[in-house]
Each structure stands twice: as C-alpha cells, then as structure tokens.
Amino acid sequence: MKLFSIFGLALIAQTVSAHYIFNTLITESTNSTNAVRQPQDSMPIHAYYSGEITCNVNSSPASETVEVKAGDRIGFHVDQKLYHKGPVAIYLGQAPGKVADWDGAGQRWFKIAEWGPTFNPFSFTSLNKDEFMTTIPKSIPSGKYLVRIEQAGLHLTGTLEFFVSCAQIKVTGGGNGKLSMVSIPGYIPKNDPSMMVST
Which residues form the signal peptide (predicted)? Predict the structure, then answer.
C-alpha cells in the first residue's frame, strides 16, 4: 500500500509539473532567455481577470532588453511542444516609460498575431508546435515594449488554463500608426461565457 502511494504521489507530481513555459525570445539577431520575464513555474493561470494574466505569476523585470527593428520577425520558443488544444496569440504593449519598470498595467496592448482553430477535424494550429514567430508591424511607433505570448488551453470543462510569458524589447525604425489598444487584464470580461468551453 505504501509503495502504491509513493508511486501515485510521484505520478501526480509529474502530471502537475508537466506544463510548459514560453522561456526564450527569438529575434532575427538573437535568441534570449534573459529578455524574458521568467515565470516562477510552469503552472497555468486560471484568473484571467487578475493581474497575473499580464505577465504571469511573480515574474520580475528581465535583465536584458533586446533591440529589434519594425518589420523584423519576432517570437517565442516554448520548452516543450504544446500538447493542450487552444489558441495562441502575441501582443505588444507600449511601455509608458522604462520597460523594466512597467508591470503591463493600462490600456496599452494590441494583438499582432494569432494561431486559431482548424476544422474537419477540429483542432488548433498551435498544437504540437514549440516555436511561434510573427512580424513586428512597420507602422508602430519606435520605443520600449513588452512582447507577450499566451495560450488559452481549452482541455478542461468549465475553465481555461492560460500559459503566459512577457519579454522586454526596444523597437527602432517605427512609424506613426494609430493603434487600437486594450487592457490586460480587462481584454476578457469576467464571467465571459466564451471562457467556459472545452475541446
């Protein structure tokens, strides 16, 4: 009985820890883990209306801010292939001052990429991928930004599991485009019925 309990606990621990982290920022000039505000662990976020949804739990300022050009490719590598079904999106958040000092609060975020569903059969384009790349819009203003990636896992009935990371970047050679921005948290209304789905 004790032996079974030990193996049972080990299996539970392995299952609990078997999530993933978007731990590496990818640009055309470098791959950096130092630019990512590393989450404290791989556990998902359920409270999408809380401050944790912005850049994950207890993520401290990164030690590096990577310079990128508007129009360049940018993205994230995840520490293992995504095995939960659900959409992935990348946002940029324009820092009001020093990006290392900004916690991501305020209506300063806009989406630049999304990996959504496929049909016949139903799945998601993010499934079994470990790298997500997009292009920084040439029209955005130059300046300091947080680049944020999220996956909303749809595998549980009645709740979503969010996997989130942020990285610090400086955009150069930008334009003067007008951006439609949202707040994170706040981009998903609390008790939104669309948050109660599962695959």
Answer: 1-18
